[in-house]
Amino acid sequence: MVEFSALGIHRHGQIEVICGCMFSGKTEALITQVRRAEIARLRFQVFKPEIDTRYSTDAVSSHNKSKFPALGVKSAREILKHVQPFTEVVAIDEVQFFDSEIVAVATELASSGRRVLLAGLDTDWRGEPFGSMPQLLALADAIHKQYAICMVCGAPATRTQRIVPADGQFLLGSTDSYEARCRRHFDPELVTRIRSAQVESQATAPVNP
C-alpha cells in the first residue's frame, strides 16, 4: 500500500469510532462526516459488510432512510484491496459485523495517514461487547457516543433490546426485532421469557378434532 508521505500528502492518520445502541443515529453521523469530507474535497471511500442488506446492497443507510453510496465487502481484509492510493478518508459502517481482522485493517489504514471512520454497535442484545468493538474503542483516537431514546420511559437509551424470540448474536432487523432501552428498562432475559410463553401457549392450545 502506498504511504501518504510518499505522495507528498502530510496528514496524520487517525481512527474515529462512532458507537451506541440501535436507533442512536450512528450511520447518520457517519454519513454526515462523509458529506463533510466531500464538501472539503477530500478523497473518500465508504464500505459496509456485504451481509447487511436491510435497506440497500450498494449504500449505507440509516433507519430514517438517509443513504450514501458504499461498497459491500465480505471480509475486513477485502477493504484493503479496494482502498485507492489517494484516498484520504475511509468510512466503514456496521463494523461489529466484520471479523476480527477489522482491527488490523483500521490500524493499517490509519498508519498510512488516512482518517478512518468506523460506526457500529458497542454492545449486543445481551448487553455484552459486540465483536471487535472493544479493541477498536481502545485503539481509537476519538470516540463519539450516540444515544437513542428509551421506548419505555423516554430517557437516553444506551442498550439494544431484542423483542423477538431468536438466539444468536447476529440477527439483522429494525423496529420489527429491536427497541432502544435505557439501563433501567433493558431486559436481556426478555427473549427467554417470550420463548417460554410461546411454548406454554402452544402446549395449552386446544387440539382441533
Q: How would you portray this structure in words?
A:
This protein is an alpha/beta fold and 209 residues long. It has a domain at 4-146: P-loop containing nucleotide triphosphate hydrolases (Rossmann fold). Helices cover 25% and strands 23% of the residues. It is built from five helices and twelve strands. The protein has helices at residues 26-39, 76-82, 102-111, 133-139, 190-204; strands spanning 14-20, 44-49, 59-61, 67-69, 71-73, 89-92, 115-121, 142-145, 148-149, 156-157, 159-162, 178-181. The strands form four sheets. It has a six-stranded parallel β-sheet, sandwiched between helices. The chain has a two-stranded antiparallel sheet with strand order 3-4.
Task: Describe the secondary structure blueprint for this structure.
Layout lengths: L13 E7 L5 H14 L4 E6 L9 E3 L5 E3 L1 E3 L2 H7 L6 E4 L9 H10 L3 E7 L11 H7 L2 E4 L2 E2 L6 E2 L1 E4 L15 E4 L8 H15 L5
Parallel strand pairs: 1-7, 1-8, 2-5, 2-6, 6-7
Antiparallel strand pairs: 3-4, 9-10, 11-12
